[in-house]
């Protein structure tokens, strides 16, 4: 099945920016338009008849024992269409012998070739086809089938397959050799199934054939309905006239644009998909990558990113870039407290969990023949994570995608600054700003909303601006996975049974990390309370307690936990929008008031709704250092300052009636001076790398972050730009970077 990206073309963008200017549709724009028309043809091809199937085939693919034949017959009965079993109806009739006899006669390799030839000589339309377990191992025959059908992968847990095959004849399964177990053979086959599928049906343990058949039909319906999963702005006003068209975006558009044109943030128009209890239980034994594939496929429509391609991106993002094979492991600290370690990525912070994947999503979604400049504001960790992530995209994509990271010149730790500067590559730059993070973030939002400037960049330089901060939906979505995965790990390790509640405690600045936990709950993870932990910049804690978001007479106070030294929590808007039943008018009113008057108050009903799920408190600098010291003294584990903030608040706010998962958002080595002060190590005026090596000699938990140690050797002498705290200065700098990179 051909795949077409969904995105607006340059002419639309330019006309939006300059409605009075006539825009000539040149060759580049025509290429853009062709993609839009192609998607229209894609829609028509699937809706050509009244039937669910139309002229296309529903092709069931999966390993031996997946139930393809049984499920195929049930679907055929439901749809009243022809059912074809490749084993019985094609191979055995072509060969005039049983499949097992043929396999015994010619051997594995020759069997695959002859099986493929038989399928190549077969054609059908409007049918349900049940493949053999080995069909996907023959490329030419699969391309032949894919041209006129949707391939549905019946993904059955390995333990269930092995159990089922004990009661089945296995003499016609290709690849059985002495010394190869059935389990190993099935594991080997998975690479072929993952290569070909258009949509996956997760067949959880205990699901009946009838239930699987219904899942297949729902998956096919979703695949056909390319307009079903759209996004709206948090500031979108619903039309009073029901017939008036709602302004929506597809996932690919939301990722590319980053921020909505009205200044709001993109959110799904419909509810988050939800997994049932059996589906979650079937993921308990899965790897992080497998969990991510299942969850993100449910959240990203295959018309935006084909499921098989998304799976490849996830494997690339989390394959070899993380120091721990579990990606985001959970460690028991003491009592009912567990640490979710989110710092095993290449830059040592939780941002890697999103920013190793987002660049691949972004590169896939952008249209051809356009350049993109990604602007990022960072309070410390995002900058190096963005630069590292986008340095890993292909060479061709690097020629069209560049990154500029703006950080507060004196508002990040020495290590973080060295890391941001040292992460600059051929398509990414670090820019220090003589102000705080809130200025950087607000300035970038103002640049995005400046239609004259963004339109000028498009018309003059052929470059479109986008963002990789957590305001970008493609950045926020992958964070849902690690919150779900942490809960499943607790079940896997026997600390809880599935369905038992947990609390989560998260050091919070921009509200993205804790919001991702809210989304995990919406998907079915039983999180009881969200504990918001602030440092001395505790505007969020005050808001959760009072409903009053007040920035008047507040200035950012530099702390030992700089990544949450934030006063304007952008992602709060998404949560308030959800609580207020998607009242875009209210969001516009509140956040315009925040911009103009520096405060807003939500009504009593919303405050009560917020406090049903959220509790909050803050931690002083003294308490932060004391928590680092006491935790190391009692358990030999070193908390980074952000995690220490969360632990202090968890100790104070959590009632110990259920486990609490404390999000550890960065590796302690990024904050060596604070750690040395907390552990009462004699102050030494050494370089950041020397401090890292000193701390690594303590043989503490978690172990040293080797990637950070290695990178620091090369980082300390790189050059970077510094700008004044002036939006026009930043705009000039952005234009110069675009000229140098793309012109």
What does this structure look like?
This protein has 743 residues and is α/β, with parallel strands linked by helices. 48% of the residues lie in helices and 13% in strands. The protein contains 34 helices and 20 strands. Strands 8-9-19-14-15-18 form a 6-stranded mixed sheet, sandwiched between helices. The protein has a 5-stranded parallel sheet with strand order 2-3-1-4-5, with helices on both faces. A 5-stranded parallel sheet has the order 13-10-11-12-20, sandwiched between helices. Strand 14, helix 24 and strand 15 (527-534) form a beta-alpha-beta unit. Helix 17 (381-390) packs parallel to helix 19 (414-422). The chain is globular and about 85 Å long. The two termini are 36 Å apart. Residues 1-50 have low confidence and may be disordered.
Could you list some keywords that capture this structure?
single chain; 743 residues; alpha/beta; six-stranded mixed beta sheet; five-stranded parallel beta sheet; 34 helices; 20 strands; disordered N terminus; Threonine synthase N-terminal domain-containing protein
Give the topology, please:
Elements: H1 10-17, H2 27-46, E1 57-61, H3 68-79, E2 83-85, H4 86-95, H5 99-106, H6 108-120, E3 128-130, H7 139-146, E4 149-155, H8 158-165, H9 182-196, E5 199-202, H10 209-224, E6 231-233, H11 251-257, E7 266-268, H12 277-282, H13 288-299, H14 307-319, E8 330-334, E9 337-341, H15 352-355, H16 358-365, E10 371-377, H17 381-390, H18 395-398, E11 401-408, H19 414-422, E12 428-433, H20 437-449, H21 451-461, E13 463-467, H22 473-476, H23 479-492, E14 502-507, H24 512-522, E15 527-534, H25 539-546, E16 548-550, H26 572-579, H27 584-597, E17 599-601, H28 604-613, E18 614-618, H29 621-635, H30 641-653, E19 660-664, H31 672-678, H32 688-696, H33 706-715, E20 721-723, H34 727-742
Parallel strand pairs: 1-3, 1-4, 2-3, 4-5, 9-19, 10-11, 10-13, 11-12, 12-20, 14-15, 14-19, 15-18
Antiparallel strand pairs: 6-7, 8-9, 16-17
Helix pairs in contact: 1-21, 3-10, 5-6, 6-7, 8-9, 13-14, 17-19, 19-33, 23-24, 29-30, 29-31
């Amino acid at each position: 099945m051909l795949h077409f990206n969904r995105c607006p073309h340059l002419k639309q963008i330019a006309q939006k920016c300059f409605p009075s200017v006539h825009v000539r549709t040149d060759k580049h724009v025509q290429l853009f338009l062709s993609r839009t028309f192609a998607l229209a043809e894609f829609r028509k091809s699937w809706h050509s008849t009244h039937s669910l199937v139309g002229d296309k085939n529903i092709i069931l693919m999966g390993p031996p024992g997946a139930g393809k034949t049984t499920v195929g017959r049930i679907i055929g009965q439901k749809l009243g269409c022809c059912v074809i079993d490749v084993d019985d109806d094609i191979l055995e009739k072509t060969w005039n012998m049983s499949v097992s006899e043929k396999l015994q006669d010619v051997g594995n390799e020759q069997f695959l070739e002859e099986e493929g030839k038989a399928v190549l000589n077969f054609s059908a339309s409007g049918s349900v086809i049940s493949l053999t377990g080995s069909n996907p191992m023959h490329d030419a025959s699969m391309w032949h089938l894919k041209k006129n059908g949707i391939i549905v992968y019946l993904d059955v847990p390995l333990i269930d397959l092995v159990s089922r095959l004990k009661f089945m004849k296995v003499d016609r399964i290709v690849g059985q050799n002495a010394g190869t177990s059935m389990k190993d053979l099935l594991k080997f086959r998975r690479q072929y199934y993952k290569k070909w599928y258009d949509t996956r049906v997760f067949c959880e343990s205990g699901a009946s054939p009838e239930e699987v058949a219904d899942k297949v039909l729902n998956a096919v319906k979703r695949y056909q309905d390319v307009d079903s999963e759209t996004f709206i702005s948090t500031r979108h006003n619903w039309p009073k006239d029901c017939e008036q068209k709602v302004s929506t975006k597809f996932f690919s558009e939301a990722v590319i644009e980053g921020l909505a044109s009205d200044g709001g943030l993109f959110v799904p128009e419909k509810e988050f998909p939800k997994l049932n209890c059996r589906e979650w239980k079937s993921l308990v034994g899965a790897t992080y990558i497998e969990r991510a594939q299942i969850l993100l496929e449910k959240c990203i429509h295959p018309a935006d990113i084909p499921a098989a391609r998304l799976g490849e991106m996830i494997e690339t993002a989390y394959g070899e870039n993380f120091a721990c094979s579990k990606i985001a492991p959970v460690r028991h600290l003491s009592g009912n407290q567990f640490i979710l370690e989110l710092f095993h990525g290449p830059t040592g912070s939780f941002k890697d969990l999103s920013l190793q994947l987002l660049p691949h999503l972004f590169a896939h979604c952008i249209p051809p023949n356009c350049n993109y400049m990604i602007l990022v504001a960072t309070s410390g960790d995002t900058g190096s994570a963005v630069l590292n992530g986008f340095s890993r995209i292909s060479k061709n994509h690097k020629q069209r995608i560049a990154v500029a990271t703006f950080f507060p010149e004196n508002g990040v730790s020495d290590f973080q600054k060295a890391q941001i500067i040292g992460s600059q590559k051929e398509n990414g730059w670090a820019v220090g700003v003589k102000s705080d993070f809130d200025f950087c973030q607000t300035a970038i939002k103002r640049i995005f909303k400046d239609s004259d400037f963004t339109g000028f960049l498009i018309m003059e330089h052929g470059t479109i601006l986008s963002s990789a901060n957590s305001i970008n939906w493609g950045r926020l979505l992958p964070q849902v996975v690690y919150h779900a995965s942490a809960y499943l790990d607790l079940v896997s390790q026997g600390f809880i049974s599935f369905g038992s509640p947990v609390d989560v405690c998260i050091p919070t600045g921009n509200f993205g990390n804790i919001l991702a936990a809210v989304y995990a709950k919406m998907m079915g993870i039983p999180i009881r309370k969200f504990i918001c932990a602030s440092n001395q910049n505790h505007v969020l804690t005050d808001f959760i307690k009072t409903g009053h978001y007040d920035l008047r007479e507040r200035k950012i106070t530099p702390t030992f936990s700089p990544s949450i030294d934030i006063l304007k929590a952008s992602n709060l808007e998404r949560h308030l929008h959800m609580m207020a039943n998607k009242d875009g008018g209210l969001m516009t009113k509140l956040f315009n008031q925040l911009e103009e008057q520096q405060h807003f108050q939500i009504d009593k009903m919303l405050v009560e709704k917020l406090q049903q799920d959220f509790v909050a408190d803050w931690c002083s600098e003294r308490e932060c250092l004391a928590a680092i010291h006491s935790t190391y003294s009692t358990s030999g584990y070193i908390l980074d300052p952000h995690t220490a903030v969360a632990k202090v608040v968890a100790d104070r706010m959590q009632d110990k009636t259920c486990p609490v998962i404390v999000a550890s958002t960065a590796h302690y080595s990024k904050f060596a001076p604070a750690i040395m002060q907390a552990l009462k190590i004699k102050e030494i005026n050494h370089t950041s790398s020397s401090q890292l090596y000193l701390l690594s000699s303590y043989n503490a938990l978690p172990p040293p972050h080797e990637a950070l140690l290695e990178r620091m050797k090369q980082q300390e002498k790189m050059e970077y730009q510094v700008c004044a705290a002036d939006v026009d200065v930043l705009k000039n700098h952005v234009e110069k970077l675009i000229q140098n990179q793309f012109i």
